[in-house]
Design goal:
Helices cover 25% and strands 29% of the residues. It is an alpha+beta fold and 264 residues long. Bound molecules: 2-oxoadipic acid and magnesium ion.
Length: 264
């Protein structure tokens, strides 16, 4: 797959999408104006958004995979995963008040996150290799907020928009990779006390560690890899749940505690 966008177009699209993120307004999906854009172009735009944040002094604190479960792919009408970066200010503490005004139309997702202790690189990383390179697995809830009108996009548009990344909350219970069978760990999401989604780790590519392996392979296409010490969110286990101001979310993880937040 090759590039179709000029450097100027990449810079312009990155500025456009980042402004929409920072000022919380929705935009039309960028493939409407650039129908020939490829995933390589989209990833160029995403890396340019990342460069802009780093230039302003933000630190990168991890990576995320998106659309790694059938529930999510079906919900969004997309058939392949995407990825994104996590900047320092995306991270909120457990029980946080999430400021609704800073967001457009947020949704929440129950995920598992892996923290690596060895580098992972190349197109053929296995689940076993990921587990061997994992220091900890932690429950994490992602708040996504597509900058696109009505949350409607294609894979190219969403990859350029840093895969809808906006905030995340990490739980306080961490486990060793060998402590649980990550495919069968259950999650229950409650909104305002009512169960709205349930699922298990295997919803993500049969095993959430497979999502880390897929990230290594997607990064490898650009000559990049996953360094030791990387925090990686592996993708929503269930469909994402739309929230409104005033909603409170609790996600219960089997034997791994809860992660909560309130939208204010
Ligand atoms: C894209 C991001 C999806 C996940 O965990 O599947 C994602 C979107 O649905 O807006 O983060
Ligand atoms: Mg997610």
């Amino acid at each position: 797959m090759s590039r179709t966008l000029s450097k100027e177009a990449v810079a312009k699209l990155a500025e456009h999408l980042e402004k929409a993120e920072l000022e919380a307004f929705e935009v039309t999906k960028i493939t409407d104006d650039y129908p020939d854009m490829t995933m390589v172009d989209a990833t160029d735009v995403q890396w340019e958004i990342r460069r802009r944040k780093e230039q302003r002094g933000h630190k990168m604190v991890g990576m995320k995979m998106g659309l790694t479960s059938w529930a999510k792919m079906k919900q969004m009408g997309v058939e392949k995963p995407c990825y994104g970066f996590l900047a320092d200010y995306f991270s909120l503490s457990d029980n946080a008040d999430v400021k609704f005004d800073e967001l457009i139309h947020p949704k929440v997702e129950a995920e598992l996150a892996f923290v690596t202790n060895k580098p992972l690189s190349g197109p053929d990383v296995t689940v076993e290799q990921v587990l061997d390179a994992t220091e900890l697995v932690v429950p994490a809830v992602e708040i996504i907020d597509s900058r696109y009108k009505d949350f409607k996009f294609d894979l190219v548009s969403v990859q350029a928009d840093n895969s809808s990344s906006t905030r995340f909350v990490v739980g306080s219970h961490a486990a060793k990779p060998e402590d649980f069978d990550w495919a069968t760990v259950g999650v229950v999401m409650q909104k305002n006390g009512e169960v709205v989604e349930v699922g298990a780790g295997a919803a993500v590519l049969d095993h959430p560690a497979a999502s880390v392996a897929m990230l290594a392979s997607m990064l490898d296409e650009r000559g990049e890899s996953i360094p030791a010490g990387t925090f990686i969110m592996t993708g929503g286990i269930t469909a994402a749940v739309l929230v409104e101001r005033g909603d409170s979310i609790v996600v219960r993880y089997q034997d791994l505690g809860t992660v909560s937040m309130r939208f204010v």
